[in-house]
């Protein structure tokens, strides 16, 4: 049997780990790997226009499937383009292996053409970043990279010189015992017992949930019922915890709404469940706090804790539930549910009246109609900035929809490339990119990649010819907005010129039909909606100190965000309050 090259072995091992495609841009240092992919059954090379798209796409695939995904860049400038998307994947805990091709091994350290040191450059955005400088390092280095990416939920980077990739491997890659799934982590009995005592001793308990509650919806609801706890969430926890939730009190943070802030501050015990919520200005400092997290390094880094619990949210609650006494007093819960419903009702009318006659179009109206027209199992990818507001306040989770964005890294231009990766997983599932014109135009070249592969991604473009979040930041800081506007651009015409479906909408009465037509279209489509850049309001609770310290968390103000169908759920939850 012919010996494998290092490149062939590299591709073979990725295939054993479940990788089915590698996103990237070809280049000479990658040529041996590209040729190995071309000949490998079950492995595809996905050509993009920009390596940043490759990393975002791989990160999206990993987030949606929970499986390892991969991307690659050629030496020097090629793999440098991966870095922003890899930062996002790493901070989103998405298991991704990146191949950073390197210059010829004999030239490393001589300031050779295109020389960089990717094994150093990617160290901060990865759990593992190493250079293969000799064939005998394979397959151990790649196997170690995979174990780090999967086992620690993040990025691994392998730097590989093109000349090494073309050499014969010392031995053929056998079937390797690769880790492809993370285990669940149950806390020790001592921590469970300590937490149970704290819950029993606290008359008022509030849960604040993040993305670590994925798969734990039933356990959270059972626990909330047992201790009569309001349940708030961070943005990344919304899709996992808000639906079918009779204890929902909304979201806290920069884009917050409802009574989550009050429920957290008026509790006797706050349980931070599977969240690394970064905005400590929104956390109480006079309430007992417990944090439960699968990553011990997250515990206590945002607030002072009275108890740190290292464990999976679902396993922790399963162990905790039979050990706590059921609470009979639900006055705190009922008061927070009423406050939440009142808070949402108070903002709805102001932002929904006469919207069908408002020009430029209210962006919140577009988001509300999109929420109604999109499929019940749609995947939404969301640009950073004002599109985060629309996702937070208008997209209704139901346990089947997914919403991903650059929620931890905060990069512009993430939505289109994440939609690209999401659609590759399943061409029959509706994928919708909520893009701002600033973010879309930054990586617009990869709209051509949608057309090239015939991916039926639907781009809903909130086109206000401005970087509105930056406008807002400047105004709150007392500065005159500057450098934040763009010339008016007909992006629908660009989409049509690229061979996709494109429609420009300037009349609000045309929004619903335009979305329906785009959704019916079999291929990629772009709906360019000209929206009002001057729709601004405050979140439910912002202190003078927070405003004065705007640099702490840019974006304290949000667009005038009604709350879509969430108000219906809040009103429905009021029916759970027992009547005397």
UniProtKB/TrEMBL annotation:
Can you name this protein?
Answer: Pyruvate dehydrogenase
- The chain positions of domain Thiamine pyrophosphate enzyme N-terminal TPP-binding read 5-116
Stretches assigned to the Thiamine pyrophosphate enzyme TPP-binding domain: 383-529
- Please name the InterPro entries in this protein's record: DHS-like_NAD/FAD-binding_dom, POXB-like, THDP-binding, Thiamin_PyroP_enz_cen_dom, Thiamin_PyroP_enz_TPP-bd_dom, TPP_enzyme_TPP-bd, TPP_POXB-like, TPP_PYR_POXB-like
Keywords for this protein? Pyruvate, Thiamine pyrophosphate
The entry sums up its family as follows: Belongs to the TPP enzyme family.
Question: What Gene3D superfamilies would the database entry show?
Answer: 3.40.50.970, TPP-binding domain
Q: Which CDD domains has this protein been placed in?
A: TPP_POX, TPP_PYR_POX
Top-level taxon in the UniProt lineage: Bacteria
Pfam families per record = TPP_enzyme_C (PF02775), TPP_enzyme_M (PF00205), TPP_enzyme_N (PF02776)
Q: Where is the Thiamine pyrophosphate enzyme central domain?
A: 192-320
